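Quick check before the chapter quiz. The format below is the same one you will see on the exam, so make sure you can read both the input and the output lines.
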Amino acid sequence: MAKLKGRLGLSGFAGLDSDGMSAGLALFWHESLQVEVKDVNARFIDVYVWESASAPLWHATFVYGEPRTDQRYRMWSAMSDLKPSSTLPWFAVGDFNEALWQYEHLSASPSLEGQMAAFRDALMVCELKDLGFQGLPITYDNRRRGNANVKVRLDRAVADDRWRDIFSDATVIHLVTPCFDHFPLLVKLARESHIAPAPLFKQLTEANQQFTTAVTDNRILKSNVETLRIKVKMAADMVGRSSVLRPRTTWAGIISELALDVFIATGLDFPGDSACFTGLAQGQQVQTSTVQSTVSLESLDNRMSSKVTSCLAGMWP
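Here is the expected output.
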């Protein structure tokens, strides 16, 4: 897991590799940050963070909550034990594996009220408050159908009042991905940062911009092609209904109007199975296939002129 540092363009790492059925846990950070690792275990990574020499020191805990319901109390006990270990402003984020309220749990079967109450009690003891979110109201979807489907907000960010005073404009965004059952969280501290983006982050950002542009271009292409199709059909109908020869300049005008609607369009091809951005190597640029559709104005004018001339010849022997 530590080998990912280079591919992500980050220098700091703390974590545990997966052990059998137990998932791994990892924290990476940029070289501009000063991070002191206090504890690493299967349930959380606990660190102290400095953004700069002049910035305040704060306490951060990155969580992977207990997946077994009957053992979840151990997670809340561990959090309560962390509270007196530091007097620093405290922030915690991750998958807590539990909802706080019934409305955060969407399924055919309700969540156990006692389990949610124990989570709320643990946050109250630690004086941690939910930071809210932007985006979808869930962070987990088991992607099953019908009554077997479960959608719930398991992932969140919480902090005490002193941390919230330092980062009063902090926001939490629920990102969306088709690749995983959990949605990633993006926490913005709302401070200007001059850190150069990591290579992988830059690639994902550029890919997202290219995808948005491609969607817009595709809509424009479909709109213009449909407009051209309607105008060609209208011209054909006019020729079919005509019983009197019209001046040559009139037909040329129709052809010119149609020709002006033909254009060159360039788009991007995003295969559905490769939209997850997995397996990107360091420095690898996001590759897309360019689809170019070119229509010759001259050939269109010649074809239209030929058809109109043939039509006129049939009308005027």
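If your answer matched, good. The longest helix spans residues 199-241.
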